[in-house]
Amino acid sequence: MIQINPREIAADAMLQVMAEDAYNHTALRRLLRQNGAMSQKDRAFVTEIVNGTLRNLQYIDYVIDTFSKTKTEKLKPWILAVLRTAVYQMIFLNVPDNAACNEAVKLAGVRGYRALSGFVNGVLRTIGREKEKIALPEQGTAAYLSIRYSHPLWLVKMWMAYYGYAQTERLCDADNTAPDVTIRVNTLRTDAQKLKKQLMEAGVDVTDGVLWEHALHLSHTADLQKLPAFIEGLFHVQDESSQTAVEILAPKAGERILDVCAAPGGKSFTMAEMMQDKGEILSCDIYQHKIDLIMQGAERLGITSVSPCLRDATKEYPKDVARYDKVLVDAPCSGLGLLRKKPDIRLKKDGSEIDTLIGIQQKILSHAAAYVKEGGVLVYSTCTLSRKENEKNVEWFLKNHTEFALEDLTPYLPQPLQGAGKDGMLTIFPDMNRTDGFFIARMRKKGM
What we know:
Layout: H1 6-19, H2 24-34, H3 40-55, H4 57-67, H5 77-92, H6 97-110, H7 117-130, H8 142-148, H9 153-163, H10 165-175, E1 181-185, H11 192-201, E2 205-208, E3 215-219, H12 228-231, E4 235-237, H13 240-249, E5 256-259, H14 266-274, E6 280-285, H15 288-301, E7 306-310, E8 324-330, H16 345-348, H17 353-370, E9 372-382, H18 391-400, E10 404-406, E11 425-428, E12 438-445
Parallel strand pairs: 5-6, 5-8, 6-7, 8-9
Antiparallel strand pairs: 1-3, 1-4, 2-3, 9-12, 10-12, 11-12
Helix pairs in contact: 1-2, 1-3, 1-5, 3-5, 4-5, 5-6, 5-7, 6-7, 8-9, 9-10, 13-14
């Protein structure tokens, strides 16, 4: 029988993410596929180590640098990957120190670094003895939150300026919580209770949505795409915050709707389900492979009202002027509301891209405004927590497009969100309702 060491696979994934600049989900998918003989338990262990290490990387490196004479930036990439994954197990997974240390010492030698086994052993044994005495920066400071919760200092400072210290700490803490998988029931084919029963019979842990009746939260899912309910098109993956954007758009049967940045298609699919698949939804993206994903998703779900279209949202399409009842702009953004699901975002961004994104977002919004009929609705949403990309963009838009006005969101919000959105804008925080961080604004085009 093939012997596969899950800790080696996890260290290899970390090496690819950190030294080779791979995305964590891409590296994990590739390595798990290459090592398909691993048990489901080991596959879950590998995924937890990699994502958990990435979520807590700054803290882990701080610990290593505290107890190692050779600092992290000077270590061989493989040795650093081994140390990082071992420290995560020791501090965050409660793996016995001896087990984590012994396995790391073995791993040091498998890639030709046997001479460094003693170094790895010494560093980890010291951490095991001293981990309860680690001195962090002073509480109440941005530096403390940055190290304690492994968030970039620039991001912590930005959020503190927006939301204050206490809310920023809650955000950072929520970002370090492993998310479940949230789905939206395909109401064209089933309902939430029937689907919940079917999934539970397949061994999936299922809980009801927090915000929406057609949402379900899944854990212990293994490979979602192999579930009969997925193959039968009974659901698609979509976070409840993303579902909220569609609820605020409030699509109705028979309407003509434009989804200008639609891939991978979740919002368009939810629109179609809310419209009983009656109407016209043009779902656009700039990349053909993403258009293919939308086409495949619509076919699997049995949806016919969605028409995928390859086009660039930053360009003008005069034939569409005043053609649509409703337009959704789910804009490309910095993704700072997704740190739970994509922990490598915090390692790959330094905030410098935000100003570039703002120019793109404003161009997309301006073009999208022209496609809305008189009396029609424009919804702008992002999956980021950045006022420059969110509230400031809406303020800019309204100043330059006086034919639009914000609308109170109260009629469209579920009970847990009531009291928010009266000014036409809503920010959903990941610490609130087990969702991604999200921003949504609803604007109506005035009639002449």
